[in-house]
Amino acid sequence: MSYARQAVHPHQPRFAQGVTGLIALIALVSQLWPIILVALGLVLVALVAPRLSPVSWLFRRLAQPPGQLEPVAPVRFSQWLAVAFLAIATILFLVDFALAGWIVTGLVAAVALLSAISGYCVGCEVHRLLLARRSWAEDLREPLGLTGSGPWLAVLTAPGCARCAPTVERVKAAAKGREISVVNLAERPSASRAPVKSIPAVLAIGGDGSLRAARAGVINDSEIAEIVR
């Protein structure tokens, strides 16, 4: 994952969470708390210098090209939560509150492994819920680069997204000549403020800039028709 990118492979967060959870679990089982520093260091490297992350490097060697992508902002939020909890656990061990430190370590292991196995990223969902509460009433015209009087149909895309171009064409066909705003996250990072779980995403924006409806990921023709209406 790179700060220059605004979307990531949907399986990359699960892979990284699996590594974090496994290291935390090893520390818990072995009762060797310094092992936690390895997990903390790997997450920090992924945040601060993602191109140097060994976890990201390994994932890129193993992963298949994605059909869709995931916005990077929820992933970063989840990583910062992991850093916070791992740092708290480390501090607890350093001040001889070992039991509390192991409880926090166990929590990190459980949440990270749950995310890796099920695909349900707790930190990502917290971020999206916070963003959704703000974005449904937020004026998205400037973040999406929309002009004119509206309302608007917008499609969020990103480089490397296999489903994005076909989705744009399907939306254009359903719109029957109505103008479609295609917003590339790489060119307009502010568009990540829209509360969607994956890319491509089709958005209906009201004349006041508020988000009226959204569909993301694998979008069928009936969902596209609903957004267009």
Describe the overall structure.
This protein is α+β, with helices and mostly antiparallel strands and 229 residues long. It folds into two domains: 7-132, no CATH class; 137-228, Glutaredoxin. The chain has nine helices and six strands, in the order E-H-H-H-E-H-H-H-H-E-H-E-E-E-H. It has helices at residues 12-30, 35-48, 54-62, 72-94, 98-118, 122-135, 141-144, 164-175, 221-228; strands at 7-8, 70-71, 152-157, 180-184, 201-205, 211-216. A four-stranded mixed sheet has the order 4-3-5-6, covered by helices on one side. Helix 2 packs antiparallel against helix 4 (72-94) and helix 4 crosses helix 6. The longest helix has 23 residues, at 72-94. The chain is elongated, with a radius of gyration of 20 Å. The two termini are 36 Å apart. The model has no long low-confidence stretch (mean pLDDT 85).
Which structural traits does this protein have?
two-stranded antiparallel sheet, four-stranded mixed sheet, about 230 residues, Glutaredoxin, elongated, about 10% strand, 9 helices, alpha+beta
